[in-house]
Design a protein that fits this description.
Layout lengths: L2 H5 L17 E6 L7 H11 L5 E6 L3 H8 L4 E6 L13 E2 L1 H6 L4 E6 L5 E6 L2 H12 L3 H4 L5 E4 L3 H13 L4 E5 L3 H14 L4 E4 L3 H6 L5 E4 L9 H14 L6 E4 L9 H8 L3 E3 L1 H17 L5 H16 L11
Parallel strand pairs: 1-2, 1-3, 4-6, 7-8, 7-10, 8-9, 10-11, 11-12
Antiparallel strand pairs: 3-5, 5-6
Protein name: Shikimate dehydrogenase substrate binding N-terminal domain-containing protein
InterPro entries: Aminoacid_DH-like_N_sf, NAD(P)-bd_dom_sf, Shikimate_DH-bd_N, Shikimate_DH_fam
GO biological process, one term: shikimate metabolic process
């Protein structure tokens, strides 16, 4: 079931016939978001779809403030970033399968119940951004990688989205986790045992294990592009190096795009002959998925190209800070 069709299982459209020209507003709620790239991308995508809608930053962790703006008649949707992805999700009327299974919400949209009352639905488009970025580059990835394991680097919220995407759309049932902290990996394993028991997660904890395991077809990085300093970080880097030097090659996607989308993982994968995908592509496709839910139509091709060009230019000109920016 496609994204838009699935959204209507939660209710009917709230948009009037002239929805694009109605003065609707979308808000980003999060902490430390003043340098977010979302306003740039969403403004471009709204304009490409002839929508006179506006995008606003609301730097807050106050659930009451979120609820007040959410329930305004001119609010047509929200994006939610750290540290609100779990707590604000609890304030919505319903969650999609993705949001429930990942345990975090980054997007809300509006649908109407049978009485015409607004319902606020939470979903997770991070996983859709991962899926669409891979399939755009490698349309047959879902079949080519069948029966092969994949790997996720990291143990936080982005790792959850990556795990779900691999399992849900690429048929991956065995996923290696490389991470600096064993406790975070244990928490991931416990979480998905309850939400998606069909996934088998393995902690890839040593270089020796990385040298003899089956080569993963898709490798997704979800950690900052920092120089490893702590013992766990150093081992994690060596594990990744060992995997990328293996004879078999596949796809490397690094969700990190700051301070540059050309990260260590991206460069190392490219050098070793893997197909590489930068985090800027994921971010744009996350925003595209959000726009589809709000505008209830696909984003036109020129809008996508403009957004891809704009974000690459923005991050390479240093217009955002790696510690301050939130999508």
């Amino acid at each position: 079931m496609d994204l838009l069709k699935q959204s209507f299982t939660h209710g009917s459209s709230p948009l009037p016939p002239n929805g694009e020209t109605t003065q609707y507003h979308v808000y980003l709620f999060g902490g430390n978001i003043s340098k977010s790239l979302s306003p740039l991308l969403h403004s471009l995508l709204f304009r490409a779809n002839s929508a006179s809608w506006t995008f606003h930053l609301t730097e807050t962790t106050d659930g009451n403030r979120f609820r007040k703006q959410l329930h305004a008649n001119t609010c047509i949707g929200t994006t939610i970033t750290m540290p609100n992805k779990v707590s604000f999700g609890l304030l919505l009327d319903d969650l999609t399968e993705e949001a429930r299974m990942i345990g975090a919400v980054n997007t809300s949209f509006v649908r109407l119940d049978k009485c015409g009352q607004r319902r606020y639905i939470g979903t997770n488009t991070d996983c859709i951004g991962i899926r669409d970025s891979i399939l755009y580059r490698m349309p047959h990835a879902a079949t080519t990688g069948k029966g092969r394991p994949s790997m996720v680097i990291g143990g936080g919220g982005a790792a959850r989205s990556a795990i779900f995407a691999l399992w849900r759309w690429f048929g991956v049932t065995e996923i290696y986790i490389a991470n600096r902290l064993k406790a975070e990996v244990d928490a991931l394993i416990t979480f998905f045992q309850s939400t998606a028991p069909g996934i088998t997660l393995h902690h890839l904890a040593t270089v020796e294990a990385a040298a003899i395991c089956q080569t993963p077809y898709i490798v997704i990085g979800t950690i900052p592009n920092d120089i490893p300093r702590e013992p766990g970080e150093i081992i994690c880097r060596k594990i990744c190096d060992t995997i990328l030097r293996r004879k078999d090659k596949g796809i490397v996607l690094d969700m990190c795009y700051l301070p540059s989308p050309v990260t260590y993982l991206y460069t190392n994968g490219q050098h070793n002959g893997w197909t590489v995908i930068p985090g800027t592509e994921v971010l744009v496709r996350v925003c595209i998925a959000q726009q589809i839910l709000w505008l209830e139509k696909d984003v036109n091709k020129q809008g996508v190209e403009d957004a891809m060009s704009a974000i690459w230019k923005a991050v390479n000109q240093g217009q955002s800070s790696p510690k301050a920016s939130r999508i």
